[in-house]
Amino acid sequence: MAELNPSAQQPAAGTGATYKAPTPKPKQNPALRMMGLPNLPRKLPSRNWLIFWAITGSISAAIIYDKREKKRATAKWKHVVAPLAKDIIPSASQLPRKLTIYLEAPPGDGLRIAQDHFIEYAKPVLAASGLDWEFVQGRQQGDVRAAVAEKIRRERRKHERPDEEDLQTDEAITESLRKKNQVPEYEGVKGDIIFGRHTWKEYIRGLHEGWLGPLDPPVKPEPITEPVEADSKTPKAEGEQPEEKKEGKKEEEEKKPERPPQPLPYNTTADYSIANLPPQIPAEFSPANPIPLPHRLGFRHTLVRLNRFFNRRKLADEIGREVAAVCFANSSREWREADGQYEQELVLRHEEKDWVKSVWKPEEPPKQDDDNTAAAPTEPPKEKIWPATMVVDPRLAQRMRRFEIAPEDEARASQIKVPEAEIEGWIKGSFRSLWNYTVESVTAKPMKPNVGNVDSDE
Q: Which stretches of sequence are listed as region Disordered (predicted)?
């Protein structure tokens, strides 16, 4: 009998191929199909993609977490010092408390680095406290030393030489106007904030120079010059000389005013022991707190810089605590002494390892060409404060003070909970503001005319 379904017959044995029905397409999720999205992949990415996304996600998570916690630490200390901004000054003519901020360019870099460090970590806390402050900034080694010493010498001249007129600077003019208008000065504790080990060493050096040094500047050595040999070349024509003079005048006019030279130190560290204290020296100096300023340069230190970059939250909490202690000024202590060394010498010493090698190299004398027979005037070399060992006089060390955070302020800071809206990023903050706007627009009542109380007889 013939078979009813010839299409279902088995293929011939000699063909060598079998027929397979095509596999149906996987059914797509209806929700995804209506949204226009393709099918989700049914297998994991490759090994290389998994490694890439794992590393990228870990680094991104570490950066985001550290940034949030840094904002949280700064915001916590902002809330701690915020009540100080509500304190009322007793009189309208009374001057408020003013702090002094000392900034200087770190070794091997510019002043902008120190300014950005202050703006990022310290300025939010100071602004929240409502206190006033002034800057003493230095662009090169020795500027802060000269400023601190000159400030102390001005105070000494008022008592030791009252008849001598001082230079009319902006500060002197402002002070004379306040005396004329009978504006009383602030009589409380002020305070100094010093950023970085390099600035701290200059601050200590200027403190000793101002109180232990003389009031008169040292005598400058006379410049020693060698006679200039006459030019053996033939003189130029008379017509060319006026042109050279005109060019020289133009160059002088185009030159910008140069920066005033840095004043030389009035004494050395070897003069501390033989110097006498001024009679009007206070029993206690204004407290000063050094603030860390970690700054390391170089490709070899990439791992150290990355470690600091991922732990900025700890630095923000440390700086916030020190700045808050200065703002409150509730308690101050003496600088301690351990193992025959003063605490002033040991504070922030670890930052010296971050300095560039050029700081530790001795300065070489300038070389002169063989053709140049004229010698430049000899000037005393600038004092190298950064690489030198810090020398502290015991008479001044016992007068120095340092602010510290009070236990009650520390306990109050630990209980503060920072709102999430203050530390969230731009993306989350945008969604939060959009949600708040939507809720307010839905729940807000329509505005009505304010007609007052209709039932009232008035």
A: 1-33, 153-179, 216-273, 359-383
